[in-house]
Each structure stands twice: as C-alpha cells, then as structure tokens.
Amino acid sequence: MDRLPIPSFITAALKTANGGPEKRRDPPPNPLSYPKSSDGFSSELFQNPTSEYRGMPFWAWNTKLNREQLLRQVDIFAEMGMGGFHMHARTGLDTEYLGTEFLELVSACVDAAEKKRLFACLYDEDRWPSGTAGGNVIKDNPDFKQKKMKFSPNFYDGDLLAAYIVELDENGCLKSYRVLKEVDLNEHVADTNIWFAYMETNGPDAWFNGETYVDTLSKDAMAHFIDLTHETYKAKLGHKFGTTIPCIFTDEPEFTIMNQLDNPHARNDVFFAWSADFLKTYEKEYKSDLLQYLPELVWNLADGKPSAARVRYRDHSCERFVSAFMDQIAAWCGKNNLFLNGHMMEEPTLHSQTCALGEAMRCYRSMQMPGMDLLCDWVEYNTAKQVSSVARQNGLRGAMSELYGVTHWDYTFEGHKGQGDWQAALGITMRVHHLTWVSMVGEGKRDYPASIGYQSPWYKEYGYVESHFARVGVALTRGKALTRVGIVHPVESYWLSFGPNGNGDEKGIRDQAFGDLTNWLLHGLIDFDFISESLLPNQIRKGPKGKLSVGACEYDVIILPNLKTIRSTTLKILRLFSKAGGKVIIAGSAPAFVDAAIPSANPTIETSRSILFSQQSIVSSLEEYRDLRIVIHDNVPEDKFLYQMRKDGEERFVFICNRDRNSPITTTVKLRGAWEVEKLDTLSGAQSEIKAYVKKGWTSFPYRFEGCASLLLRLSPSSSSLEENFGISSISGEGHIIVTDVKLKSVELSEPNVLLLDYAEFRINDEAWSAQEEVLRIDNIIRRKLGLFAKGDRIKQPWVFSPKEREPKARATLRFTVNSEFTFNEPCKLALEDSDKIMILVNDIVIPVTKPTENHEDWWVDTDIKTVDIPPYLIHKGKNTVTLSFDFSALTNVERIYLLGNFSVHLDGWKSTVRPLGVNPITWGNVVPQGFPFYVGNIIYKVSITVPPTKASTRSNILLSVPNFSNPVLAVTDTKNKKKLGRIAFQPRTLDLGKLKEGIHELEITAFGNRYNSFSHIHVPEWIGMCGPGAWRSGGDWWTNDYTLKPLGILDAPKLVVEIFQVEDDDEHGSREYSLDWVKVCAPGI
Prior knowledge:
The protein is α+β, with helices and mostly antiparallel strands. Helix content is 21%, strand content 28%.
C-alpha cells in the first residue's frame, strides 16, 4: 500500500491562519499576548497584577436581558478581582441572539468594561457546540446540515453509497470483503453478511433551536458561520478588537461522534464523520477510492495486518475539520487582531478525541490562545499537556482553561486553588471560570452550578483566590518553559487499533499507557511536551546540535511511547536528530509500521535506546535531564508535586504545587545549578529571600508544603561559587505551645432562615386537586397534559418563540402546606420567581405584590427571586396553605418557593415543620440539624479569646486554628475596630493574628455560606455527584423523596494556639527572627 503522505493543505492552512503574505501595519499587541511579560520583572506588577493576568469567567446571558442588570454585574466582576468576562448566551436567553437589542447590550457592557479596565470577551454561539449561529447557519442553507456515514446491516431506501459482502474469521477479523455491484443488491438483501453504507443528514434538534448541527467539515458552511457571527460582531464592535475585546471563545466544536461495533459479530449501526464531498477530497489527497476499503474502518484485518485506509480516513476527517473550522476562524481572528480561544469537544483520552475530533493537538495549531476544559473536580493531565505543548511550540506565552464547571454550590476556595494550581503548573495562564449567571430564573439555576457571581455569599472574598492566580500568571508568562523532553503523541497508533469492541483490549491498554506515562513523568518532576506527528513537518527548524528544534521549543531527548505505527516524516526527522547526536528512547515496543503500512525496510533509528515501558525504566532513563528534585527523609523522592520552570534570560521562575489538598509534607527542594532563591508569595504579594545552599551543582533548601500549598520562586544566578550547607536551623532555648479554647459568645445570621417549599398539590383550571408532588415533577405532568415540550437538558431558547407560542394554554394552581408549631407574631417573607405574574394567597388571603424594585430588601439570593411581605399573625399554629395561581404557557417556570423568617425548621423525611427559635442558640457544629436545614447564608460567630501573659525574654506567635469547617472560606474581624485580620481558606487552616496584648480580645468569624441546601439537586441520593440539568428531574435510583443536604458551619470548636519561644542574643545561626521563619515556612492563609 502507498505510504501515508503529508496532507497537502497543512502548509497553506497555517500560512492563512497566520495572516497570509499580505503586508499591513501591525496593530498594537493583543493584551492576551502578555506584552508586559517582555519587560523586566516588576515587583509592582506582581503585587498588583493587571487584568490580562486575571480570570475572565463565563457570564451566562440566560434571561430577558436588562441593561441596568448587566451593567451592575460588570461592576461585580471588578469587585471580585476578575480581569473581565465572556458574554455567553446560555439556556434561558429571551433576547434575540445577535439581534439589534442583543448587540446594543453587548456594546454597553464593552463600554462599561473599558471604564473598569476589564476585558469584555466574545463567545461565538448561542449555547454550544459552536458553529450554527443559534441555528441560523442551517436556516439559511439546509445543505450545511451535519452529515454522517452510517455503516449498517439493515437495508432501507436511503442515500446508499455502497454495499458489501463481509466474511469474518474465527477471531472476528476480516477474512474477506467485496463491494457489491448495484445489480447484485436484490440477490443479497436477506444475506446476514451484507452491510450497507449510507450518507445521512442529521435531523432537527431543539438544542439548536429546531435546526441541526452544522457540517463542520464544510469550509462553505463555516464561512457562513463566520459571516453571521464574527462579521456581525465586527460591524458593531470591530474598533474595540484587540484592546477591550481581546478574544472570541469557540466552544466544543466536533464532527459526528464516531462509534464502533459492540463486538466483531454485533449488528449495531456504526457512524462516521462525513460530508457530501468527502469521497472526492479523500481521493484527491490519497489517490484512492475510500469506498473500496470501508469494511477496514469497522473490522480489524487478519493476522495483525495494518490498514492504511483506516488511518487515512481518521487523518482526512480530522484535517477536513481543522482546516474548515479552526483554521478559517483563526485566520479571520488573526486578520482582525482577535485571539481565538476556546476548546474542543472530548479532548482528554485517545478514545474520546479519536471519536469526536480525530486528534486534539492538530485542532490547536492555528489558535492564538488554545484551550481546554475541565468538568467537576477531576484531573486531566493529558488534556492540559496537549494544549500547552502546542502553545509552547507555537511560541505563545499562555494557554486557556475553562474550569470549575459542575463543581456545585459547595465547592470551596481550597478546591478553586487546588484545581487551578495543577493547571497552572501544566501551562494554563488564562482561567475562564464556569460560570456566573445573569439570572437564576427558571432553568438557568440548573445550568451546571454554581454561579460564582453575586449569588454566592462569598463573592466579595474571591479576590483572595483571583489575585493568587494573577500573581502566578505574572511569573509564568515570562520567558519560555524549560522542557528538555519531547514525546511523540501516540494517537495515530490508537487510530490503527480502533476496531470493534470485544476484540482484545489493545485500545484500552493504549489509553491506559497514555495516561500512565504522563503521570509517571509529571509526578516524577520531569516536564515534557507532546509532539504531534501531523504538525511536526511544519514545526522543524534548524537549532543547536544535539537538540530537536520543534517550533519555539528545543528538546534533548525524544520518547517513542509504545508506538505501533510512525509517519515516514517523523522517522526521517528522528533519524537525522539521532545522527546529529540527539537522544531517542523507544519505550516499549518499537513501531512496526510506517504510515500504517508494512515498510520495505525495518524502521529502526540508529543509536536509539530501547527500554521497558515501565515507570522505573522511563523515569530513570531521563535523570540527566532533570532540573528539579523534591525529596523527603533519606533523600526519597516525593511524588505529590507538579511544577513548571520558566527560563527568562539568566533568571528562572519555578512554580510548584502540592497535589495533596490535606496533608503537609516536609521536604528538601533541589534545583539544578547555583542560584539565589527568592520566594514570591502569591497570596500576599510579598517577596522574601530563602536561605539555600549549593552542593554538587544543586541549590537546596528545606521547605514545608502544607496541603494544597504552592510555591513560586524567582531564581537569579548565584554570585558565589562557595558550596555551603546551612542545614535546618533549630531554635535553642526553651519553647512551648499553649492551646486554649475559643469562647463562643453568640451567633448571627446574615440572612433570615429558610423553609424550602417544593412539594405541593396542584390542579389545572377547575380540575380536582392532585396529591402532593414535587414541583418540577408537577411541571412535567402539566406539560404532558397540555401537549407541551418537557423542560430539561435540550430545549429551544425562549428568544425563538413567537407571540402565539407564548400564549397561555391553561390556568394552573399550586397549593403548598406550611405546618407551624406557633403563630408568627412578626412579618415574614415569601421568595419566588415571576411574582408579578402570580396570584398569591396565604390561608386564602390575597397577598398584594408590589411592583418589583431594585432595592435589596425586595429580592433574595438573585434579583429575579423577589420577596413578598406576609404580615404578622397570618401564619398561625397548625396547618397553613400558600396558594399560587398563574397562567401556564410553554415558557412558564414552575419552581420551588421559600418562606423566609425568624424560625427554626424540623425535618421528618420530606415533611417539615416550623418551630420558634429555640432557647438553645446555634453552637459549633453543623447548623443543618440545629434547625437550619435549608439555610444558605453566612454565619457570624462572635467569639472571645484570651491571650496569656508572656515574659519579656520570649517571643510569641498567636494563631487562630479552625481545622474543620464546611464553608468555602472564613473571614476574621477584630470586633472592636472592625479591622479585617485575614481569611482562612487553605491548610493548615490557621490565621496569624499578629501582635496582641495579653488579655481578652473579641473577634468575629464569618463562615461564608453557599446556596446548596436551597437550590441544589437535593432529591438525588448522596452518591450522585453530577449536577447537570437533568439531575433535578431525575427518577428511579436517582431520586429520593427525602432531602440530601450538605453540612454547613464551623464543625469543630476553634482553638487559640500560642507558640512561645525563648529569645537569645548569642544564636550562632543568626537572630531568632530568622530561625522562626525558617521553621514556619508556607502557611497558606497567613
């Protein structure tokens, strides 16, 4: 078979993406190119990082948009310490997408951002995946609908491409196959060995507003997407491109998700990415008719023979996708001084990217800010390394991550830091937080929470986290990453093995090895980049002898990780590299095939070294390329760390993070070379010297990493050649620790207590009352009865509904029950959505609804959840009813309601009773069983501490220790002068209170709340962690009538820890000040 050629249009696509040969005046540098990082290191910039170093979250435009509401939230982004925001149309949008009003509001937010020195980033779609312009691409031209090739054992009257007689051997591999001529079809329709290949067009989908996803393999379709989206934004806002508007986000584009046979003898349909002209472009590229080889895409060849057609198909479908979608959009962005950021669908594993993209790294080749996403609090090292590898090789200073998605309301600051730290260590500089909402109305509140905006009680504290990452970014955008190791990405070998399931476990073994290798190296503190075989021919440049220069990177050693096939271009490059003195390591089996074909000669690389594919073999073979060691006792390496090292002229910047969020580790940090070491404190912005010693060419110092801790270092060449060992200084003289209780005086709440009402009786029009049911289930029932669509994951956007479709279909009434053990003698409030459209009765008394205002007193949690006053004595002892009556239409929201007031709540299963606030006040521990099961605000603990007397000859550290709390963050304030003393968010969960006189001091500890217990999917069992929209409308094993609630509050009593040290003047190691700092290194939160 012919060898796999280099696709002919790679070079042309890359030239186009880079702006083409046309000469033009250079615009000012895009702020996301981090131009300040080219200047000398600035302590001022590190202390107060500017907006380009700060996160820019998704801002979900998910309601009928209101100018004042939007502008107020722009101010909130600034208050949170953000660098900007991405204006992202999401479920619930009721303003025409890309219409006149929508664009005017975008423009207003851009102007507001500019005044606040924030960045206003664009998003290129109505929801996701990108490419349809809210369905309008398909509406304008139905030929642009997404296509697929279906390989099926079933005959039907469709767009038949070919038919095949297929015979398998005893191992389920292809024994023979042949294409049937059209005249033979009638003879073989009943033959169980016959398979049919059809081209199909995908059908309409409510998610795309009743249209179909777009053909992402079609350049014409994607050009129309650019015309409708990017050109529309340019016409309105082009003068702000590259300044206030630095980028446009593309989200999860894909081609038809491909699958496999369930087993070699299965008869399920198999789908492949396709386009109307796919056969034509394939034949042009490979001089071959793909229809002659289609069965090889489905089944493996016998005797382990390779299928060049299988690899060529994967390569061509990927190239069609990248050149049509990514290259075209990136080229447009480049010409308009915008950065294209965003991420692909299904990037992390060899399997997932093969099915949705072909190859992830190729997708990033023309992006100005390539990116990834991470759902939940998971770890995807390979996703990050694929992105950062292309960014580094393209000479970019950064990469992007959409992170924190699906982590829910109870996610802590520790989680935010821990997840962001490991990504920063792997090259992520731009954080796009998932997400903030304009509104919590309707389905919006179930759109993958939490909202980290003003709806979260802690939003004003978030600058603590954001400034940490901004300071990390100031350092990690300088110079370039120091990586000496390159790994040839194994995705094309995976393509070759991508046959049916149940035919051996080669695919699973390859994916496991892909993850293992990355884990071994990263936790072995050997940084590396992946090398894409498809990109490599256009990245190679002349460099220093013995190094492989791939774009802007230079590698000393290249690893071939258990490859099955290798491109002839890669083989040629590595042979020349090895011949010039470079080092090539073959880990595991050497590639047997070249261009997915049996080569005429053995594809060896002279002087390469073959080793076992094992952690010990691989890590030890790379020891000479190591730049960092972190060891514990007896010089044992510690494997809980990740790092990145940047070379910036003669200096180095090193970022290290502890992946263990709970356990402290006392270590010795060792850096290759002789360095002066400076610690850059990312939590405070302070800079300080670290005493280190040089021995045998390594600079070392002791360091204690707390759980979830990170360390940022600035290294300058040492002016001394003296090798000294300072050791770990000890404190001489007597010293001891006094631990005393913190006295709880009282507790205050920032919000009223909450009774959640989510079970009700209901009726439609004048029907009989139903039994009690949960409100979202009531919504489903009413919709079924009225013949309306069910709400949930995939619904059309409100903005596409016509006035007629919005007309009421019936009158619905819900009746909630409030059981009370006392009569309310003071007012309370009812919180609910759309209060101006509802008749509200409490015990059959009509409650007047005043016109909603923007005053804080008139809303709770979200400005669209309004509060209605209920007068005293209306709710009495015994059974009470709250009745809501409203017109029901396709866009009606049936939601939980909330009673707010001064009471406690007792739960018995799913039934609740309100009681008077008890004589027993709130104390330490979970407040949920203390009468506050649905409370979601802040808890302010008013405490007193007693500082013991100390001698004049001693020095003391006074620490407040709060080791166990469930809140996202704590803030501590001096009650007397209202001065904020600091926060407790990270391990060791202590706060240095500074110098305090002996005696009694009063403090306030604010435990910031979260909205989980009122707004979460609290009717799913505890073992379910996913919080997608469907989790609120679950059933079966995914449903419980009772409430699954999370603890809230300071769970164990805090302690005052006083460390007392004897001060001596004749310390041979220096002052006591130095010794104490030497021991007490890295205490996050101080």
